[in-house]
Amino acid sequence: MSERDRFERLRLIRSPRIGPVSYRQLLARFGSAGEALRAIPDLAARGGGKASVADAGAVEREIAATRALGARYLLMGDVDYPVLLDQMEGAPPALIVRGDVGLAAKACIAMVGARNASAAACRFARSLAQDLGQRGAVVVSGLARGIDTEAHRGSIDSGTIGVIASGIDIVFPPENRDLQAQVGNQGLLVTEHPPGVQPLARHFPARNRIIAGLALGTVVVEAAPKSGSLITARLAGEAGREVMAVPGSPLDPRAQGCNSLIREGAILIQNGADIMEAIGGFDPRMVRQGSFDFIGEPVSSDVAERERTAVIALLGPAAVAVDEVIRLSGLSPAVVQTVLLELELAGGLERQAGGRVSLR
């Protein structure tokens, strides 16, 4: 991949309304990011709106700032882009990383849990992370308070990956400043956001998909119902990864999430041996290498107005599966995906988890 192509791909990623799905579709249809950038205004016009592309100067400044921080980019299609993450729905087209990228190629286990974790859970998480490190595994977590912090502390010497919901130069929570620096120096620090981006609430669910995507399985140590940790576990399960949980007292609300996961089929975990046994049947060599040739959703270069009208008529503010739109419309997947892409670029469509879409 030439430097020019890398620059244009990053510019495409940073353009308004370009998400992971539309990024893949545009590359699949036009063959290069440069051609895709030139086509965006016309595609948006067909969708009934206007669209602009990222300013080249702004992208150049982002690249300079990233390099000044001692970080670098991993673009989808790079040979060292994490293979397991590539399999996740909505995997980020670009990562900014600092540290040892080779850690992501090892057997990774995600460990997540409550921010207001009990002292006993924190102690157990730290011990469990140490145990996993001694068994050759790399621990992935989110550098949050509580369980995340202890998971990183327990695995910092053996290998840990911290995924953050902000720019790589931003520390959150502030008390983890030294720990985040240590992860970047001794382990691997990962984000999908440019330098300077603050950790907004909407960034955390997106961060969770990266945590789940990097790992063969996710362990929840302590979590209340409806917590972010359970989102990570759900994403792991949807991706076909192992979901594991540490049981807790039914009298402690912080254990209800884990106990519910176990009741629903998650593997009960008591030590590192249990985790390694759970992931023992997963062979990473069986994972496809799809991103290297940018296999994307089928798109068409020509859509009749009656076809566009038929697709739009099936959409509304309530999310619907794209497969359902294809079935009800009777149109080819290529035509439906093209109409959705045009609407998205025009600002009229929102993509949601599980391959669903809705009108804005």
Spell out the blueprint of helices and strands.
Layout: H1 3-14, H2 20-30, H3 33-46, H4 56-68, E1 72-75, H5 83-86, E2 94-99, E3 108-112, H6 119-134, E4 138-141, H7 147-155, E5 160-163, H8 177-186, E6 188-191, H9 203-214, E7 217-220, H10 228-238, E8 242-245, H11 256-263, E9 267-268, H12 272-278, H13 305-313, E10 320-321, H14 322-329, H15 333-345, E11 349-352, E12 356-359
Key terms for this structure?
Arc Repressor Mutant, subunit A; 12 strands; 15 helices; alpha/beta; 360 residues; three-stranded antiparallel β-sheet; Rossmann fold; nine-stranded mixed β-sheet
Give a brief rundown of this model.
The chain has helices at 3-14, 20-30, 33-46, 56-68, 83-86, 119-134, 147-155, 177-186, 203-214, 228-238, 256-263, 272-278, 305-313, 322-329, 333-345, and strands at residues 72-75, 94-99, 108-112, 138-141, 160-163, 188-191, 217-220, 242-245, 267-268, 320-321, 349-352, 356-359.
